[in-house]
Q: What sequence folds into this?
């Protein structure tokens, strides 16, 4: 196995790229953007799929072996499937994973299966249609839920991402765990983050400890699962249940010490930390005629300067912490 050359000043090797293919989304989830939306980037400012492929090739050449496709909603961008086919053939890339809101995934199910993409994370914040509508500002619950069941029946590995917040969906926590009783999927409960496109944090105080305490009041027997060293979630399973659940301390940031991720936005902004500012714009660099070797050096230098954790990176953000998650790519 090729060892990644992307090493930061704290000795962490990065082998995982989160690639946002668009800042556009067909939902308006309250924790991601205002109801009226955001000022989406003009088309010409988005990386083309060919540019994304070129940059992905550079990343893989430096040891990135996993790419997660994010957005916005990835499947709203025309041309995404041909791009994924081409990306899946990159020598050295071991895994492609997709994060989606689930409205369009069923449409592309056969193509994803054919190209070997079997892991899909779907954002689903409630199992109640009315609460789902209040959270997403869209009436698409049945489409998303039935699509999830269809993916499971077809052998896909599904993780559901549920952002937990007071007065929004606390009553959904236990039903989500009960969903894992008969379905072999994983539900991950996330602390709410401040990336909602407004100057207001919105954090409601439901941290990972409070979420676990709430769950432990309903289940006397909870087994902790040994997770990968780079996992952002602390994972658990109720004995006898087909699936499991995890809790991601995305606001508390307790997982920063083993972070192996780097992010590239749809407009080419490179971030070595979700909470930090962009450290380079690879779109501009690429369009100015930079070679593969030049791009590699930019990446090596940027990663080498990565901050210790999200709190140190946040101190450098100059207010960009409230940028919409749709722009950051998650």
A:
């Amino acid at each position: 196995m090729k060892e990644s050359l992307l090493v930061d000043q704290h000795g962490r090797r990065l082998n995982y790229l989160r690639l946002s293919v668009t800042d556009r989304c067909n939902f308006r989830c309250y924790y991601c953007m205002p109801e009226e939306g955001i000022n989406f980037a003009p088309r010409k400012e988005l990386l083309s799929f060919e540019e994304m492929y070129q940059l992905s090739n550079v990343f893989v050449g430096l040891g990135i072996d996993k790419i997660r496709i994010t957005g916005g909603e990835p499947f709203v961008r025309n041309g995404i499937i041909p791009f994924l086919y081409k990306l899946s053939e990159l020598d050295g890339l071991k895994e492609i994973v997709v994060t989606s809101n689930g409205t369009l995934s069923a449409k592309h199910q056969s193509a994803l299966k054919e190209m070997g993409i079997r892991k899909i994370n779907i954002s689903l914040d409630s199992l109640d249609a009315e609460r789902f509508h209040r959270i997403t500002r869209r009436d698409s619950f049945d489409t998303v839920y039935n699509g999830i069941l269809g993916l499971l029946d077809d052998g896909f590995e599904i993780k559901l991402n549920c952002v937990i917040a007071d007065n929004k969906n606390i009553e959904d926590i236990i039903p989500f765990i009960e969903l894992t009783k008969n379905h072999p999927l994983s539900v991950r409960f996330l602390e709410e983050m401040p990336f909602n496109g407004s100057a207001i944090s919105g954090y409601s105080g439901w941290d990972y400890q409070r979420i676990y305490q709430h769950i432990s009041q309903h289940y006397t027997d909870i087994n902790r699962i040994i997770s990968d060293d780079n996992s952002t979630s602390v994972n658990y399973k109720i004995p006898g249940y087909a699936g499991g659940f995890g809790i991601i301390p995305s606001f508390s940031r307790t997982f920063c010490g083993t972070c192996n991720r780097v992010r590239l936005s749809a407009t080419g902004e490179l971030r070595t930390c979700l909470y930090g500012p962009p450290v380079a714009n690879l779109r501009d660099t690429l369009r100015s005629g930079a070679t593969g070797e030049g791009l590699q050096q930019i990446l090596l230098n940027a990663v080498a300067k990565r901050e210790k954790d999200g709190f140190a990176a946040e101190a450098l953000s100059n207010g960009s912490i409230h940028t919409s998650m749709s722009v950051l790519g998650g």
Q: What stands out?
A: The CA atoms of residues 275 and 321 lie 6 Å apart.
